[in-house]
């Protein structure tokens, strides 16, 4: 039965005190017996000791039962556990309680982090669905009207970009385990991304100038390519005439456009998730996700991103590469 199991548990829990009581009784009665004293005095003394022991035991059993009840109620849940645990009385109990509080605080932090991560994913994919619906609807309309193939290629390019963004967003959650450092030729990485954006360059009639050295840097080629891709995509999106100039070496890489520029008050917040600023209000398709993801990837590679902009004149993003491999792992 449960109450018998709890009683046995209590006796085991207080075994030293029960043993001390039994020893004290044996001592009182034994000493009186072997000394030839009046046993009534010994029994009276034992009775008084037993009375006080019983009073203390009743109080202790009540506390023990209340603690068990609280723990039974908490069984199966860890939420707010540290604030609901019965208060420790002895030094050892307080130490155990402190350890549990630390574990509960760590659990609360992990739980909050996981909740935030899930909410971030939900926000992104909700936005992603709305974004990808636009080019799909445009392609459907063009197909029905036998529309311009150049426009269709542009819309298809957007769908491909959104799909790749979704894949990168998933991998960004565990980017540290996805990074593979190896020598990477900077000019090859840049030209690959420029070729990938040939459709929007041609569609918008923009020029592109690439002057990048053939030096190699120690980095992850895939994630560096993603950062460059986002900056080129951003430049093309907000440039309607002129073009994009890309130049750099093993220390820095700059991507400059002749687009609409960024308002000074928006510059400090352009890497925040979901922040679109004034330009986002002009182009309601802007998500405020691309630069946020580029910044997270750059931080993982210890690449610093600088930005300069003049409203109506254009924007320049500059990547500052770490001096050595050791800095990447900091």
Name its key features:
Heat Shock Protein 90, elongated
What features would you describe in this structure?
Among the domains are: 2-76; 174-328, Histidine kinase-like ATPase, C-terminal domain (Heat Shock Protein 90), CATH 3.30.565.10. The protein is built from 13 helices and seven strands. It has helices at residues 2-13, 15-34, 39-74, 81-84, 91-144, 149-172, 175-178, 186-196, 198-204, 221-237, 277-282, 290-300, 325-328, and strands spanning 182-185, 207-212, 216-219, 243-248, 252-257, 304-310, 314-320. A five-stranded mixed beta sheet has the order 2-4-5-7-6, covered by helices on one side. Helix 10 (221-237) packs antiparallel against helix 12 (290-300). The longest helix is centred in the middle third of the chain and has 54 residues, at 91-144. The chain is elongated.
- Taking the alpha carbons of the first and last residues, their distance comes to 59 Å
Could you name the CATH class of the domain at 174-328?
Alpha Beta
Q: Helical proportion?
A: 55-70%
The tally of beta strands, per DSSP, is 7
What is the fold named in CATH at topology level of the domain at 174-328? Answer: Heat Shock Protein 90
Category from helices, strands and their pairing = alpha+beta
Radius of gyration: 36 Å
Strand order of the largest sheet: 2-4-5-7-6
Query: Looking at this structure, what is the CATH superfamily of the domain at 174-328?
Result: Histidine kinase-like ATPase, C-terminal domain
Can you summarize the main beta sheet? 5 strands, mixed
Overall geometry: elongated
SSE topology string: HHHHHHHEHHEEHEEHHEEH
Helix segment tally: 13
């Amino acid at each position: 039965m449960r109450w018998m199991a709890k009683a046995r548990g209590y006796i085991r829990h207080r075994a030293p005190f029960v043993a001390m009581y039994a020893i004290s009784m044996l001592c009182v009665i034994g000493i009186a017996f072997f000394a030839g004293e009046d046993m009534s005095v010994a029994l009276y003394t034992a009775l008084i000791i037993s009375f006080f022991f019983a009073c203390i035991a009743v109080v202790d059993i009540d506390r023990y039962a209340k603690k068990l009840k609280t723990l039974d109620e908490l069984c199966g849940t860890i939420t707010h556990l540290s604030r609901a645990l019965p208060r420790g009385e002895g030094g050892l109990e307080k130490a155990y309680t402190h350890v549990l509080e630390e574990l509960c605080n760590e659990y609360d932090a992990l739980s909050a982090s996981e909740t935030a991560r899930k909410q971030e994913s939900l926000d992104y994919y909700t936005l992603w669905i709305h974004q990808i619906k636009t080019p799909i609807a445009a392609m459907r309309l063009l197909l029905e009207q036998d529309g311009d193939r150049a426009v269709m290629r542009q819309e298809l390019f957007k769908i491909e970009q959104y799909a790749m963004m979704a894949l990168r967003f998933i991998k960004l959650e565990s980017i540290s385990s996805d990074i593979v450092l190896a020598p990477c030729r900077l000019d090859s990485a840049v030209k690959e991304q420029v070729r990938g954006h040939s459709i929007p360059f041609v569609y918008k009639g923009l020029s592109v100038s690439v002057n990048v050295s053939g030096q190699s840097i120690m980095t992850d080629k895939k994630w560096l390519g993603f950062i460059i891709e986002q900056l080129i995509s951003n430049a093309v999106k907000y440039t309607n005439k002129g073009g994009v100039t890309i130049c750099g070496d093993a220390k820095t890489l700059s991507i400059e456009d002749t687009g609409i520029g960024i308002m000074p008050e928006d510059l400090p917040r352009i890497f925040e998730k979901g922040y679109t600023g004034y330009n986002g209000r002009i182009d309601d398709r802007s998500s405020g996700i691309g630069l946020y993801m580029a910044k997270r990837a750059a931080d993982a590679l210890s690449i610093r991103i600088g930005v300069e902009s003049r409203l109506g004149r254009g924007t320049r993003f500059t990547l500052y590469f770490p001096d050595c491999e050791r800095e990447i792992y900091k």
